[in-house]
């Protein structure tokens, strides 16, 4: 059986989990240790053995150990093609991969500057002020990207045509992070906000969102204080 090593609050691990559940692929999960104070230390031995970048997610299938959510999603789609998570034509697939990369790297870049909100306030006031300033700039950048994504949906139910793809999964996870990190609201962007609610109604997405909220209640008390 496939085994997914994941972090409770790992955006990239949860992309893989959503794909596994959407495709109905039998798998087992192994949660690695994570705290806001120490991050992923001590690293799980299976992660160290499989991934030179020492990161989750790691997916083990027999003697094949994979890392990087994008590589793992491609493997899962080839292993279990139905339902497909990529569109039909090379051009559409290429656009879809670019949108997944946008979610993971471009939209995610300002989201990094909101992550300090999960931590207890830094003891150094100058550092705290710098974090707050970077957070405000990040919020403006995220809001601008929301407006562009809203236009990009262009009346469609999904980002790459009429079916769920890896672009939707990646964007959902990064946008979920903007919301858990108290970033800009989705409501001013009607198409994007309706898309988000539609995905949240799917069991695979709902379960991941509920587990992340539960993990935050346990691991991220600073978020509850707003
Ligand atoms: N591009 C990688 C990113 C993986 C990644 O950043 N994983 C985070 C958790 S979400 C991690 O393990 N961070 C610990 C570290 O970088 O040391 C992917 O898509 O899987």
Task: Please give a structural write-up.
The protein is of the alpha+beta class. Helix content is 57%, strand content 8%. A four-stranded mixed sheet has the order 2-1-3-4. Helix 1 links the parallel strand 1 and strand 2. Helix 4 (90-112) runs antiparallel to helix 5. It binds glutathione.
Classify the beta-strand content into a percent band. 5-15%
What fold name goes in the CATH topology slot of the largest domain? Glutathione S-transferase Yfyf (Class Pi), Chain A, domain 2
CATH classification class of the largest domain: Mainly Alpha
What is the number of domains? 2
User: Number of DSSP helices?
Assistant: 9
CATH architecture of the largest domain: Up-down Bundle
Sketch the major β-sheet: 4 strands, mixed
Tell the overall outline.
Answer: globular
Judged by helices, strands and strand pairing, the structural class is alpha+beta
How would you summarize the topology of this molecule?
Elements lengths: L1 E5 L4 H13 L3 E5 L13 H6 L7 E4 L2 E4 L1 H11 L10 H23 L12 H29 L12 H15 L9 H11 L2 H17 L1 H4 L2
Parallel strand pairs: 1-2
Antiparallel strand pairs: 1-3, 3-4
Helix pairs in contact: 1-3, 1-6, 1-8, 4-5, 4-6, 5-7
The chain binds glutathione (GSH).
